Amino acid sequence: MPDSQYESGLVRRLRTDRNWRVGAMAAALALVLGGTVAAVAAQRSEPAGISDGPLTAAPATADTVPAGRIVKKMPADCGVSKRTAARLAPGSDPDAEKGGLFREGGPGSCMWYSLDDGKVKCGICTGDFRNERVLNVDIVLAGNRLQSPIGEAMRQMDEPPSPVRGSAPPEIVEGLGEEATARYSAETDTGGAIVKFRVGNAVATVRYRGWDAVRGERRTIPKKTALDGAFAAASETAKSLGTAARPVVSRVKHPVTPPVRHVPKPCDAVPAATVDKVARGAYRERATASLFPALTLPGTSTDACAWKARTSRFADEGQSRTLTVAIIVEDDRLPGLGAFQAGRRYLAAYENLRAGNTPGSDRFTGFKPLAGPGDRAFAVTRVARGSSGGDEGFVAFQKRNLLVEVSYRGADEETPLSGNRLIDSAYTVAVAVERSLRS
After folding, report:
1. Among 3, 5, 25, 237, which is 20 to 30 Å from 186 by CA?
2. How far is the C-alpha of 198 from the C-alpha of 177, rounded, in Å?
3. How far apart are CA 215 and CA 201, in angstroms?
4. CB 182 within 8 A of CB 99
């Protein structure tokens, strides 16, 4: 092959190889660029985090909850008549010097004492006696120092009376004030009956106890004797506070409202589509309730879940949203009791927030009753303590034996959310939570 022919062939191959390599590199670059463009396009088509809507406006309604009764004056002798005191504690006398009636702490604290049917008149007595009877009545008028008088009285009703050894769980009492309970213990020294009831902001505790000597032993008075005596005194005390009274122990709480049978965990009570409306891209964690604080009372259980979403890892940048759902369950220890307990705790929070008085340093505003969800509902806003915290909107509702609390807060850059946007977000979620509750 001539050298000229060899050179021309080599040139052609080099040119062809170079063209192939250039084409291959161009194709590869096109693939990379195309993939990048596709990835960017895909990212743009995916929904971003946070979101706000579409939201359902919270429907306000008229306030139909009447103001609770406020008792301002203590009744004389705690409302117990001389005749009843003489029957329950024979020989007792209103004159403290005669050993009959003692007052401790001023008006509203009374005690009638009888030993050997009143035949023994002494301060500290020793010896053999036939019987002893003691009637105590204590009345407390709740004020509004930390919360509404009605809310404070309800809190006092939740406090157990002075420890009584061997006492069974409290029994339901109907026909005595707005709520009442009774306990009995057969212990010799501390035994007897304790009846506790509420009339508006007044909480009365009536205790009737005693013993009889039987064949050289002291035996606590029977349950019927103790309860009958406590009810007799409690009835007169209740009437002196402005309400009729015909107390009776009941095995159910009327009206007997059946409990909600299917109660999901709070983290499972909100559909993903609803979460996406208010906190898209959020992570979940355990939380606590705010309006209905954790209660350690028997039969009450509380669980809460929070969804938190952010678009920046810096606190003062980007957007942030926090959704919290708490569910409080009141068990039906007795038929109808769960719905009753949930109702009274709902009413206590309602009274406190409507009056603008709540325990602690939190400040609430914009209280308004709502037309659902649940059996009854309200909305309120907690005002931020500092400039960076942001307000928090709440929607709370009762559904039979359940209390549900939904709260929402957030910020766009350095501007916290406020106003109806918070309440409407919480209401949108509250409606979805109620749908998850099934009988």
Report:
1. 237
2. 6
3. 46
4. no
